[in-house]
Amino acid sequence: MWYNQTMTKKKDRKKTAIIDVGGGMRGIYAAGVFDRCLENDTKFDLCIGISAGSANLSSFLAGQKGRNYVFYTQYAMRKDYMSFRNFLRNRNFINLDYVCDYLCNSDGEYPLDYAALVSNPAEFTVIATNAETGEPKYFTKDDMSQDNYGILKASCSLPVVNQPFVIDGVPYFDGALSDPVPVERAFAEGCDKVVLVLTKPRDFLRRSVVELKAADRIEKKYPLAAAGLRKRIDKFNSSLELAIEYESEGRLMIVAPDDICGVSILGKDKANLDRLYAKGLADGDAVAEFIRN
Predict the structure, then answer these.
(1) I need a labelling partner for 198 at 20 to 30 A (CA). Which of 23, 56, 92, 277 fits?
(2) pTM for the full model?
(3) 63-78: per-residue pLDDT in tens?
(4) What are the E-state strand segments in the chain?
(5) Long-range Cβ pairs for the range 132-136 (8 Å, 24+)
(6) At 172, phi and psi to the nearest 5?
């Protein structure tokens, strides 16, 4: 009898996931969503992060409400964080060593509570792109350790904006090059309900030529990553269309701002950032209802 009851409970329980696709400074919207999830004690079995989304989820899994907000509205304003000075010095506009080491380490200015992150039972997937093959790499908690947050650096390394980050001799770029909206990944991991957090309106379809120009810049050294970057627009749009189909079936929920409040991928206007964060907080309540039902 005990065995049957246990198996029934496991079968009835739904596995849930949340995906944060990133978006540079627009990620403050997702930060608001996660802070509201922490307030509502909304939990997930699987958290998938790309680029800034991986950083957002780190704080969320560690239970550090408000931490991401400080990074977007205070630390990001520092030249040591991101600036043309950084780019001129080492070809990295965003100094990921400053962000992930100086600020996040156990002796840093605002340490990531690594112990809490590890003890959180939720799975954590961080997506990066192998710069040599153009294929996605799905890192997990096992690839992290105290004061070793290289997988976050790898996932956040935007082509041209940053040089690829090297892990075990392999250079990595931003995960959005290879798997920009990983809803299929979440369902392949056995999830029944998925929350997809976007940082642009849900009806936004990529048409930008920025990716094409960036691909030209990296093609000589990383031709396969460049090829992936050129396909990113189509991958994003087709994956978003698939997500909308899943949403119509009740298996997925898209959470997205109705307006980006003038925040660009590297934007630093605090008033605009605050407005976008507030939208995330407001929209976060619907996540709890979706998971609960």
Answers:
(1) 92
(2) 0.93
(3) 999 999 999 999 999 9
(4) 16-20, 46-50, 123-130, 136-139, 165-167, 170-174, 193-197, 252-255
(5) 132/170, 132/171, 132/222, 132/224, 132/225, 133/224, 134/177, 134/178, 134/224, 134/225, 134/227, 134/228, 135/178, 136/175, 136/178, 136/179
(6) -125, 145
